[in-house]
Write a structure and sequence with these properties.
By secondary structure, the chain is an alpha/beta fold. The protein has a single domain (about 5-205), classed as Flavodoxin domain (Rossmann fold), CATH 3.40.50.360. The protein has helices spanning about 15-30, 50-60, 65-75, 90-100, 125-135, 155-175, 195-205; strands at about 5-10, 40-45, 75-85, 90, 110-115, 140, 145-150. Strands 1, 2, 3, 4, 5, 6 and 7 form a 7-stranded mixed β-sheet that branches. Helix 1 links the parallel strand 1 (about 5-10) and strand 2. Helix 2 (about 50-60) packs across helix 4. The N and C termini lie far apart (about 50 Å).
Length: about 210
C-alpha cells in the first residue's frame, strides 16, 4: 500500500524560504524511503489563512481547510516547517495545528523545521516546536532542521544539506516501518443547519 508524506509550510511570502525548505525536505525523504511510489503533498498555510481564521471564530472548517486537516491526520509521515516570528512559530502555524484534533497525530512520525533571518533563533525548534508535537503525541525525529538566511548561500548550503539528509533519513526510516493507513471510502455525513442546531439547543434548555 502506497505511503503518503505531507509537508506543511507556514511561510507568508512568495517566493518563500519556508516553502523551499519544505520542498527540499520532502524530496529528500521521498528519496530515502523504501517505496519509490511514496506520495508527497505540500500544504501552504498561506493559501488557507482566511479559512483558518473563520474556523477559529465559527468552529466550522471550509472545504479546503477540511481537506488539508484530513491530509495531515491521515499521512504516514509529516514535515512541519514554520518561519520564526518573535522567537517562536508563527501564529498561522499554531492556529492550524490548534484546529487538528489533539489525538489525531498520535504516533505519526514528524520532522520539524524552521526558517529565520539569523541562526540565533534556531532554538525555537527545541523550546517551541518539539514540545508542541510531543503534546500531540507524535514521534518527532531526533534531527530538527533550521535554515537561516546565510544557509542558502554557497558557504552554508553544504551544512544545510547535511542536516536535511540526516533528518530525511530518520523520518524515512520511521515512515517505512509504519503500517500504511488503509484507504477509507468517502462517507456522506449529513450536515445539520446551524439554525436547527440552535433550535434543538433551546428546546433542551427549557
Amino acid at each position: 500500500m502506497t505511503k503518503t508524506l505531507v509537508a506543511v509550510a507556514a511561510g507568508l511570502s512568495r517566493p518563500s524560504s519556508t516553502r523551499l525548505l519544505a520542498d527540499r525536505l520532502a524530496g529528500a525523504v521521498q528519496q530515502h524511503t523504501g517505496d519509490p511510489d511514496t506520495r508527497v503533498q505540500v500544504i501552504e498555510l498561506r493559501e488557507l489563512a482566511n479559512e483558518i481564521a473563520q474556523n477559529m471564530v465559527t468552529g466550522f472548517p471550509g472545504p479546503r481547510l477540511r481537506d488539508a486537516v484530513e491530509a495531515v491526520t491521515s499521512a504516514d509521515g509529516l514535515i512541519a516547517v514554520t518561519p520564526v516570528f518573535t522567537g517562536s512559530y508563527s501564529g498561522l502555524f499554531k492556529s492550524f495545528f490548534d484546529i487538528v484534533d489533539k489525538d489525531a497525530l498520535a504516533g505519526t512520525p514528524v520532522l520539524i523545521a524552521a526558517t529565520g533571518g539569523t541562526a540565533r533563533h534556531s532554538l525555537v525548534l527545541e523550546h517551541a516546536m518539539r514540545p508542541l508535537f510531543s503534546y500531540l503525541r507524535s514521534v518527532v525525529v531526533p534531527t530538527a532542521v533550521y535554515a537561516a538566511s546565510e544557509d542558502w548561500g554557497t558557504g552554508g548550503d553544504d551544512a544545510l544539506a547535511g542536516r536535511v539528509d540526516r533528518a530525511a533519513r530518520e523520518l524515512a526510516s520511521l515512515v517505512d516501518a509504519r503500517p500504511a493507513h488503509p484507504d477509507v471510502p468517502d462517507v456522506d455525513v449529513p450536515v445539520v443547519p446551524f439554525a436547527q442546531q440552535l433550535a434543538a439547543l433551546a428546546v433542551g434548555q427549557e
